């Protein structure tokens, strides 16, 4: 049966999908809840055998959004300014050899890339070059290279200070390796810190949370295999350990992220589901006092899938859940230990068991609300279904039906004649525009030119309705 699921997944992965709403728990064969499929690019289209990490870049010049996708043999760049029709712009090949592990972060319009490939070091790529790609896909070259370490498992950047931190390198016993990247194409090593143990991943923040003892300090929170380690790294020449904390049933302390108020730290353990038979376990620590962190609570998800990288946006926690794809938790009442599943998009249909196949990373920080999912399924772009309804005025007196629709749409008004109907894509591009002079309170409009997907229907410039075209 597992071979059958893998065959189905391989067939799905070889196809590029675009704009399919989540209806009755599925979108183009992918199980889902509260997230619509916008587009998808397979690994084969990017000429890679595997995918891993991801990040995003928004061009401040024109607001265009780009996805940066880690692959076994390099880093792919995808223009997602039209999320339904993404453009694979090309790839920056690996500096040395291929590797399962690659990680990328962004600072000052530059990408910083590390890998566990031997001798890889840190690649620096000027992202503004993506503005002028005339014949995609291109093969890019790096703009600078840092060789203060060879292989690294991960890279962390504090954009406030302009420092990058290689973690899981052969230097400083696997602790953070400090790199000044304030001049991106001239990175300068500034030492490092040997922590209690090998640091697999970390978050670094300029602290503004509830512990006034550390206000304004640069704080590193390391996920260090069997514990979480907090360090004050404000003074790079003299880092100061703050505290450590572990927990019951440690498998592999993998990666974590602060809530936006920096009061709670949300952690994923990568092998506890495998080692102990848990369903997906998310651990929450109270970091109100950085010198004395406390275990707060844990949440067990609905499947046995292994968890990987996770991030916080507002009152939601977005994380890659390997075989279960993107998983999103509602953490709005985290203080009272009330956590629930908000939604998901399963990029690895057919199995939700523990293991390392499926989604590796998610990137939920684009202004558009588009969310990148990366991993063994290649590149997937999704969006919260409910975000499409922000401008809808439910008591406007206008009704549209049928919905979903196919060829024609009826619009009925209980208040005033229908004078104009406009249809927009989810990125705000107007596709259809009808004007009426008969002062009718009901109109039938032709929509047979629309492809299947989600659209916004604006009526009389007064209200906007969400329309699904099948």
Topology:
Elements: H1 2-13, E1 18-20, E2 26-27, E3 30-33, E4 35-41, E5 51-58, E6 65-71, E7 74-79, E8 87-93, E9 102-107, E10 110-115, E11 122-126, E12 138-139, E13 144-146, E14 154-158, E15 163-167, E16 177-180, E17 188-192, E18 201-206, E19 218-223, E20 228-232, E21 240-245, E22 253-258, E23 264-269, H2 272-276, E24 281-286, E25 294-300, E26 310-313, E27 316-320, E28 326-333, E29 338-345, E30 359-363, E31 370-375, E32 378-384, E33 398-401, E34 408-413, E35 420-425, E36 430-435, E37 442-446, E38 453-459, E39 463-469
Parallel strand pairs: 8-12
Antiparallel strand pairs: 1-4, 2-3, 3-29, 4-32, 5-6, 6-7, 7-8, 9-10, 10-11, 11-13, 14-15, 15-16, 16-17, 18-19, 19-20, 20-21, 22-23, 23-24, 24-25, 26-27, 27-28, 28-29, 30-31, 31-32, 33-34, 34-37, 35-36, 35-38, 38-39
Can you describe what's shown?
The chain is mostly beta strands and 470 residues long. The protein has two domains: 2-388, YVTN repeat-like/Quinoprotein amine dehydrogenase (Methylamine Dehydrogenase, Chain H, 7 Propeller), CATH 2.130.10.10; 391-469, Immunoglobulin-like, CATH 2.60.40.3080. It is 4% helix and 46% strand. It is built from two helices and 39 strands. The strands form nine sheets. The chain has a six-stranded antiparallel sheet, with no helix packed on it. Strands 1-4-32-31-30 form a five-stranded antiparallel sheet, with no helix packed on it. A five-stranded mixed sheet has the order 5-6-7-8-12, with no helix packed on it. β6 and β7 form a beta hairpin. The longest helix is centred in the N-terminal third of the chain and has 12 residues, at 2-13. The chain is globular, with a radius of gyration of 24 Å. The protein starts with a helix and ends with a strand. Residues 1-16 and 389-395 have low confidence and may be disordered. This is Choice-of-anchor B family protein. One of its GO terms (cellular component) is extracellular region. Residues 1-18 form the signal peptide. Residues 400-468 form the Secretion system C-terminal sorting domain. InterPro entries: Choice_anch_B, Secre_tail.
